[in-house]
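Sample entry was shown:

___
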Amino acid sequence: MIGLSLPIPSIVVALCAAIVMYFIGAGFWLSLAILLVWLATLWLARPEPTVETLTRDDGSVSRQTMIELVESFGLPVLMLDGQRIAAANAAAREELGTHLVGQDARVALRHPEAIRLLAKPEGRAIVRGLTGARSIWQVSRVPIDDRFSLIEMVNRTAEADISRAHTDFVANASHELRTPLASIIGYVETLADPEAKVDEATAARFHATVLRESRRLQSLVEDLMSLSRIEAEKHEVPRDRIDLGQLVGSIGSEVAMTAGDDRIEVDTTEAVVGGDRQQLDQLVRNLIDNAFKYGDQTAPVKVKLSVNSGEALLTVTDKGEGIHPDHLPYLTRRFYRTDPGRSRTAGGTGLGLAIVKHIVERHRGKLDIASTLGVGTTVSVRIPLAGPVSATTASPPASSLS
């Protein structure tokens, strides 16, 4: 708004001049006319007011700025212009496809739960099967303004898998513990019943069964505790320097003394790795024990340790029935058995290869199982060799005598 801005001193001078002219005889109307003309010239000569335009900073950002912002998100994020995808970061493009931008979000997400969420200005939904048959995503819509909104996607598949694995583990462990306990309780109750009239031969057989099931139960509990300890330490990289060749040779000699020299063939070389001696001992024994249980009882188990490309390569080979290819991906699962009846008869707990897998993972190694039906099975373990011993580690500094 432009207002009056006449200089007050100039007005006072014009008024004084008109008064003086009136008193010297110029007359009232002439003095008034001169005053008005003077004031009019002041009005015409006034400076134009300066109008300052203020830019309002309301905190809004441009569309390009929003696109650059969502690109840096680690989670899949979509920016919607209405219902159309205006921007998609790298994580979203990897999960949903590279041609997202410009598509209708309802077409890109293609899921009833997601479409129902898009019908609302904001909200959250659990979408199953969005990027795979077993995938679970938490999808949230957050409005930016009347036009733009953000879609954030959080992958909950791993959490669901872990929860499912824990549930399955508890169920399987309960089943495995209940089976020997039921046998023990049943036979002991029969032996303790005075009216059962069990003869000595039957009683001896019952006692043998109770002893066998008790030992099986003991082995199962020990394996469960061992697996729990290994999982608790899986993030701690072992630092001890272990000669795996010497360890394998020692175990092979022990096995040969009990099973016979014709049942095992051992070929080793020096291979120093960073490891946990107790766990590596357990790994080797589990592999040899499995080979004896499920391999041909008349053919020797071959154990070989070699060094290849900076890794110690341990292979345990048996000559047996082999394993069907359908079972190979699941052999390291807890309590997984290709033949449950045969495994229990052989005294297996179903945890041996699961323990091996976790030990290998803790030692930053690789586990591979290859098998051919009618030929046999070979289990290979690769563990990185330990680095050279530093001078300070190899020889501690000599103490000075004063």
Observations:
- Residues 157-192 form the longest helix (36 residues).
